[in-house]
Amino acid sequence: MESVASQLNVQELVSWVREFIQHPRRLGPPIEDEPGWNVLTSAMDLISDTEEAIGSYLANRGQAVGYRYLALYGVLQAMYMQQDALEGLVRVLTGDD
C-alpha cells in the first residue's frame, strides 16, 4: 500500500480502497460484519467530503477576515473528522474493531 499511497492524493486513495474492497473475494468478510461495513463506507464518504471542504478552503482564501477565521475553524474540524474517519477505516480493514 505504501507504493500506491505515495503516488495518489486522498480522493484517489479512497477510490482505490473502494475498488479494492468491491472485489468479490474481498467483499465477503467486510459485508458480513455489518457494523464494520457501515463504519468502512461512512469513513470513506466522510474522508471524501472533508477533503472537498479542505480543497474549497484553499481555493477561497482571499475572502474577508471573518470568513477566513470561520473557514479556518471549519477546515480544522474537517481535518479532525478526517483523522477520526481514517482511524475507523484502518480498524475495520485490519480487523482491530
What does this structure look like?
- The chain is 84% helix and 0% strand.
- It has helices spanning 2-5, 10-21, 24-32, 34-59, 65-94.
- The relative contact order is 0.14.
- By secondary structure, it is mainly alpha-helical.
- Helix 2 (10-21) packs antiparallel against helix 4.
- The model has no long low-confidence stretch (mean pLDDT 79).
- The two termini are 21 Å apart.
Order of helices and strands: HHHHH
This entry's quaternary arrangement is: single chain
Structural class by sheet pairing and helices? mainly alpha
Radius of gyration, in angstroms, nearest whole number: 16 Å
The low-confidence parts are none
Largest sheet: none
What spatial form do the alpha-carbon principal axes imply?
elongated
Short structural summary:
It contains five helices and no strands.
Primary descriptors:
mainly alpha; elongated
Topology record:
Layout: H1 2-5, H2 10-21, H3 24-32, H4 34-59, H5 65-94
